Amino acid sequence: MSVPHKVGIVKSKQAPNVNTHQKAAVAKGVKAIGKKKDEEEGLDTAEGEEWMQGKTLVKPPDQLDLTEAELNEEITRVLKASNPNAPQNVVRYSFKEGCYKPIVFVDQMAIHFELEGNLVHKESDEGRRLMAKQAEVDDGGGDERPDNVSIKAGKREQKLTNQFNFNERASQTLNNAPRDIICQTEPPPRANFSATANQWEIYDFYVEELQRREKSKEKHEGQFLNKEEDKSKKKIIQAETQNDDISQLAKAVKIIERMVNQNIFDDVAQDFMYFEDASDEFRGEKGTLLPLWTFQYDKAKSLSVTALCWNHKYNDLFAVGLGSHEFTQQGGGMLLFYTLKNPSYPEFIFNTASGVMCLDIHEHLSYLVAVGLYDGCVAVYNLKKKTDQPIYNSRASSGKHTSAVMQVKWQKDDLDSNHNFISVSADGRVVSWTLVKHELVFTDIIKLPVIDAIPDDLKDVIPTVGTSLDFHKQKEYSFLVGTEHGKIHKGSKYYSSKFLEKYDAHFMNVTRVRWNPFHPDVFISCGWDWMVKIWDQTMKSPVFTFELKTSVTDVAWAPYSSTVFAAVTTDGKVHVFDLNINKYEALCQQKVVSKKTKLLHIEFNPVHPIIIVGDDRGHVTSLKFSPNLRKKPKVTCFLQCHCGALLSPLVDVCLHGIPRHI
Amino acid sequence: MNEAEKAIKRIQAQKGVEGVIVVNAEGIPIESNLDHQHTLHYTYNFQQLLARTQRMMKDLDPQNEATLLDVQTEKNNILISTAKDYFMIAIKNSREGL
């Protein structure tokens, strides 16, 4: 389109689409024409016209026709320094504000023409370099300037070689054959480790850590005291760590052993707990004894049971003393402890130098066991200690018995709270032994009176053998001693010169004398003369007499009833009596061991309705009472004391005064 | 021989007991009177059972832990008893009849 241009000074930065020569041609006072097409046309006509006529004004055909007024109109044009082609509304995204923001300052420079020159400033690095090079070339050669500092750059010149006489020679050193040496270390041993971390593991660990620290503290403190002790401790510690493997298991093994035994003897255990013989209802008064476990120990085969004692604290633990009654068959002896939980093997085994004749377990401190031996020694064992040896032994004591010790009994602690026990022996002395620090101190209580049959001059030589001893439950000072001659003496600890009372009990050896646990005046005795006699201490003759067909070796009161007692005889039978039910004959007479085995001892368990009997083969048999034998008397309203209910039937029986029954 | 070893021998000699296995802390049987293959078999299986039982007991009561397992089966009766890290397996024949 043709744009009318008025005559005016027009400057534009834009590169016009006009050829310079055309402009020049047109600028001769002729109207400036914008487009090329027009100009060409115009040019043809303009040049044609000009050639023909000179200054004739030619109007292109498509030029706007404007009026004079319009032509004279002044149009102002403003020159701006801004680039019309520069964008005016550039918007950029601003990450800071998260939105599009217009950019205010836009580059307004428009480059019309660019030409890179090859002029370098004199002072710049490159300029200096070039100048130096120039100088070198100008000077020619440059051999005389090796040490000129400024000319460093131009040293790498090609070597000038003599082209006639030049040999280039090269040599190469021997290249050693390359070798690969690889080294690999042995990989560290690996092990897979996995564990769980729970609260309880953490807790256990902390507890152990605490214990370890305490131990090390103790060791640390102990080290300052005694170096010798240290060495022994170290040995012990070493031994401990070596044995830790299996001995850690000791507890587990024990449990397993007991469990295995329980499972094997399961029926026995069930019977022990639950079996009640139903046929007792049909038997009237009679009862039976149910055999439970048998306890035997291989090494005790040749020995006979000489003493039995239940432990008061642990009702399933009992002690068996093994030795021999025969004078000619004296060997070693043993002290065994069995528990009902493990009938196949004893819990504790102690070997003694001579046969054990009697034993007693302390009532309160059930780890103290007093033992009387055939050679006259008394010894005290401590079950808590792991040693095989007794903690006290009267072997070295001057007051030891010269003959077999027949019975030992613990007493209450004396005024200095030392433990003490009393023993009676075949040398006729009743001696009290006190455990003072590390030794046994003896005190003679009384000497058994010699019978009249012995002539006076031999009275000191031939003693009266005391065979049995028992202390009253309530009156601690009062005791009974049975002798070999069949007499029973009642004495008191406070009178050391003579006995209070003498009972002509039996014709032969009194094997056992025992106070009734409930009635304060009643005691029972048995002997080799086939008799079992019940006495009231106030009366010279027995209240009851029972004849069993053979020598009676032991008799015991039941702990739950004042009228029940049991006796064992040499024909292997156990006789159980209940005076409340039948005053004349036994409720049960049962053979419990095989023939030719003599029963020697009997003991009632303090809690359970079982008894243990020891025989001369070294076996101990446990038996359970059937219900008929276990009858407890009914509680009456008067006699309010705690054992009143148990006393009353016996009181009745005694008061009625049944005459002696033969 | 110390007490524990003697007791183990006694249990092994007890009539009715088929086998006794003692396993140490790493799960390796250190004593056994069964043949090797059976020993390993029993050990492996009972170790797992024991671990499981222990976890279970601790889960129920963190201060409690199982000390003895008694497994009664048709043919026999297996007792597993644990100490600190060790455990012990005793295999016993079931009694005939009851």
UniProtKB/TrEMBL annotation, chain B:
<protein>
    <recommendedName>
        <fullName>Roadblock/LAMTOR2 domain-containing protein</fullName>
    </recommendedName>
</protein>
<dbReference type="Pfam" id="PF03259">
    <property type="entry name" value="Robl_LC7"/>
</dbReference>
<feature type="domain" description="Roadblock/LAMTOR2">
    <location>
        <begin position="4"/>
        <end position="92"/>
    </location>
</feature>
<dbReference type="InterPro" id="IPR004942">
    <property type="entry name" value="Roadblock/LAMTOR2_dom"/>
</dbReference>
<comment type="similarity">
    <text>Belongs to the GAMAD family.</text>
</comment>
